[in-house]
Amino acid sequence: LLIPVSNLCGKCRPRDTDLLQPSLNFLYWSLHQTTPCSQQRAVAVLLSNVSLLELLQKVLECTWLRSPPSEPAYLSSEDALLCSGWLLVASLLLYQHRYNTEVHQTLSLDLTEVLNAVIFRKKKPVLLLVSIMQFLRAVLRQNFSSSLLVIVGQNTAQGATQPQPSSPQDAALHPLAMQQVFSLVVSLQNLLVHKDLQLSQAVVACLETLVEYLYVKNQDVALHVASQPWHRFLLFTLLNGGQKSFLQPEVLRLMTLFLRYQSSNIISQKEISQILQEAAEANLAELPEATSRALHLFLCQV
User: Fold this and answer.
1) Strands (E), the chain
2) Based on C-alpha coordinates, what's the Rg of the chain?
């Protein structure tokens, strides 16, 4: 089925949402819900389909070409297709890297446009933001060096030469710039305040991957980003004062992140003691799975 469905996608246009939506979802789940041996073959099939990759290129570009919906929570058929496209490409990046699969057609994306889709959200539905952040995590984890993806800036997208980085920090973080990093971090912090579970999980995961990327590139920049005083205000906002309020998965994962990068101005011994006390008093068997995993990582980090 994978071959005829991927061929069918390659014959479609981005506006053929009724046909493309279930087709891309089928391709996505075919990659994820199969054995490792079959998964490797499935990745090879999809990456050898040039028409499919060209279609995915057009679908992703629709993210910044179409006007924002009037209702941010409303997921239109066009937005649903964008979600499927971003999630499928993120998965292809992950598995192409894992199996070192041959690439027959590269995807080309403007990094500034991708970042702006998150930084300047313009009423984008939650699921679309989550999908784009999944893609961002994939490219950050691969150090922007995937053989499937060509990252360009605004100038290179128009055929001009790539401008020289304006500072040593920009040069170290290339293709990211310091200003983009701080804008992205502030935007992710703002998204966390919405307290949407699905969005919170994606935001914290994106923050974790971003700081890991920065730490490899420039440790001083990573520690500077992780110790921004605004993070402490964010934690106070997330802590609603209710019982066991520290035992929220996104709070625990943020605390773990700040511990990992020694942000003592963000998390103090007092907060660590409070978490340990709440964990000691909790019925661990009744904790949600996401909370149990986050608590385990926090305790390991401590």
Assistant:
1) 107-110, 149-152
2) 20
